[in-house]
Fold this protein.
Amino acid sequence: MNNFYYLDALCLRYVVPFKFNELFEDACKKIENQKQQKFKKDKQTGKKIPSGDQKLWVRRCVTQAAPESDLYEYIRDEFRFVDNENEAKEQKSGCEWLFWRSRESAEKDGQSIKDLIYFPDMNKQDDGKLPESWKVKISNAGIMLFRNGLGMLWYEIGFHQKNIRINSDELKVFQNYIRELNHGKTASIWEETDENAQFGLILKEVNNHKTVISPFSFGKWVNDMVDFLDIHYMAERKSAYKSLLKNGSKYAEKLQYRIISGEDKPDADVVSDIKVADKAILFTYASFEKDNFKDSREDRISLSYHLTNGYNDSYHYGSDVVDEMRHPFDDVIWYATQEGVSYLAWPSEDNRKTFKEQLLKKAGSDYFTLYMKALYQSFSLLLYAEKIQSGISAVKMHLSESDTNVNLLYNEINLFLTKSMATSVSHIHHQSEFYIYIKKRLRIDEDVDSVTAGLNAMDGLQREMREEEEKESSDKIQFIMGIFTLFGIFSALVDSCELFNMFSQDGSWHNLGNNAKTAEVIIMVVIVALAVCIVFGIFREYIKTRRKDRKK
């Protein structure tokens, strides 16, 4: 990109999807039971003293008290607890909680969830001093659980300094680094910690109090937030936290600061043995200042492409990307991929306030809610596809054994489609169009067709197999009935012989009359013919059955 733009408004959120391997009700109880001790400052001594327990995850958010949403109520409150209910109602497909210190939490205490330091040029300094840094914070975080075993953790990052002008090039570098949760080589994000850290730089020491910073791993932090649940991330890999500390230590040796070394502490080795999330999915809302230079359409498309995916300038977009983007207004671009979604605006001066204030609030509430709903649909369909692959036999002769499982899965997917696939979501047409565009870019309708087509085919196959089983059962019944019929024929033959013997004087054949002899011979021939036909029919059905079994 030849030109860059200065930011006027920004909302950056990140989503980490996972699967939990326990009952939905049990997982919800675990979230509700997470607590930590609260402290308050003593007015006389100035020291912090315990003040009771605080739930880590709360149900109520600030926007519920004074909603400013254009979404339909059933969409906005789809996963929220309402009316102080003790448990999630059966009508709800999932539930959501906010971390208690979130900016939107009704329980917030004015502190950030995490205060961090970002060094854009951490590995480029060679003068022995720390490079220029930005103060960033995790200001919001939430967790969502769904009855089908899907979960999503999300968090929001903001910038502390309001006097710093961040441009679009710097934002691209930031997003490219932040989306990777499991860094092992480059330590660009640090946090203030204490002298018990695995490793750290002592920036200053006053009255025996040390100000220490150490490398921060988003992968480890995300894992710490949800480690009370039995989960697997959708994209995960072995933790690189130990490598991050080692590389941070190598870099720190070049700086003019005292170092705390934690080589003898075992915690890093323990962390390195676990699996952590690999990447985060990006949600980006940004409004840029209109500068004097004349920017081009290509500049805006390039920026949308890189910010949406978290790519750096080494990635170049193809011609099809231009057609994939949506321009709802002349100065707005929407773009969505599997990596993330972006809503970027270059407003003119007369509507700058709208994008800087009103739409910024809507981005964090309405537009993000719609994006999470679309992600829920997309990852749920992925889970169902996995269940079909792992829960249904690939051997046709064994399909009938899993008939119950298939029916349960079929009903579960149909219930999900019935409750979750709304297309009209807002009083504002613009928001409904945004939601429909995201669903199209995530290929949700294609995934629905793929999953349901497979189950419909499976249902047809099972119907066919049931018909075959019923026919085989009918053939067996006919075989048994044929045998009984044969016995009946022989019984009739014996009875007929006895009948004709009654007409003879001494019960012998030569004393019968000619007419009686003829009648008895005819009856015997007919009975023998019927018996031969029945035996032949049974034998023919037996041969057909054996041939079908061989074909299978």
User: Anything to note?
Assistant: The radius of gyration is 37 Å. The longest helix spans residues 444-503. The first strand starts at residue 7 and ends at 20. Residues 166 and 473 are 76 Å apart (CA to CA).
